[in-house]
From TrEMBL:
InterPro entries: GlycosylTrfase-like_prok (IPR019290), Nucleotide-diphossugar_trans (IPR029044). Pfam families: Glyco_tranf_2_2. SUPFAM superfamilies: Nucleotide-diphospho-sugar transferases. Residues 21-297 form the Glycosyltransferase 2-like prokaryotic type domain. This is Glycosyltransferase 2-like prokaryotic type domain-containing protein. It comes from the Bacteria.
Amino acid sequence: MFSIKIYLLFKLRLKNLAKLSIIIPFGTSKERPYIKERVIEKAQHYVSNESVEYIFVEGFSSIEHPELKILIENQGHRYIKDEIQQASKVFSTGQCRNLGVINAKSDVVMSLDVDCVISEKNLENILELISIKEIDKNPNAFLVLPCVFLNELGTEILQNRKLSLWDNIIKQDLLFDKKFIKFLTPASSTIVMNRFKFLELGGNDKEFIGHGYEDFDLMMRILKNCATFEALPNNLDFDYRNWNFNDFKGFRALFSIVGNEAAVYGIYLYHLWHIEPNQNGYFNNRDSNHKKFFKNLSKKNHFIESLQENSVKNKKNLALFQENSTSHRILNQISVFIGECIFKLEGDFFDYYENEPKLNKKAFLIFLKNNEISNIILFNPYDNELRLKNLSILQRAKFPI
């Protein structure tokens, strides 16, 4: 409930254009020339309008194609380049998604991998469900899309037919024929969700490098923060390494439950077949990412710092709270709109003489200057002697509180 109140309090600060922002991450290379082709196809086929804005986010590309930016923007879409990735020479789908959501102009966001396509009919259904579920108003509402992975034949046929017809072809194939389908994932990394909630939860954890598990990690944080379940699977930290299971066991069983909602509406993503070379070491960290995910699963509350709005990305606040406390977690929601928070205790800036606290004013003001603090956040100052002394110093220094 607190999350909803904070969201409503700051909602007027957001400038909304479209109903949904769709983020398309990509990175081009010699090993995967089809990525460029699929970016071009999406830029030319998709239409950014009053309902949907498409944001193409380019991460690390070992071979850059400047013409893609021109094409994307000429088609009326938005293009963003992650220069940090380009400098580090490491591609991260998760960080591309984060950058896209930070720059999105609507209250609802979803990512769409460059290898995935969605039909106009299913997109219309998603837009209707955004209104029905009030995802733009309710930070805890979301929709997880299942994904059909096509084989080479299915991909070839899909690219030569209208997607509206393909929706029923795929349902027929799922139920009976199995000619075009490689496998089905009941829950994918494409989650239609409230933008504020994505930022509050910290988006995709930057600790996951390269391919794998950053989407599972985000999914688990969404479920723990936004949903309740009558029963959880046995051995939540069990991984079948596939989606073919009959018992309610492992984290994928939990993910399948939320993915079934979109499936009931007949909404699926289609993943195009492609070769999978290990471009630029993209798969090198899959095992280490797997271990990080299971380590996070074992935590009662896996918590990461929120992402911030672009308008406050360079602002820093000194929060006189205990780090990793309940107050820290509450402040994490607000920091989306006020900027990054650095946590210290009131007593950290006091020296003690004969058990009497005395503020080290010089050290305090130097800390504020060196850390480029623009604002200070503290509890009720009249409840605590140290806090009250801090307040008087700050007031005399005319520092924002």
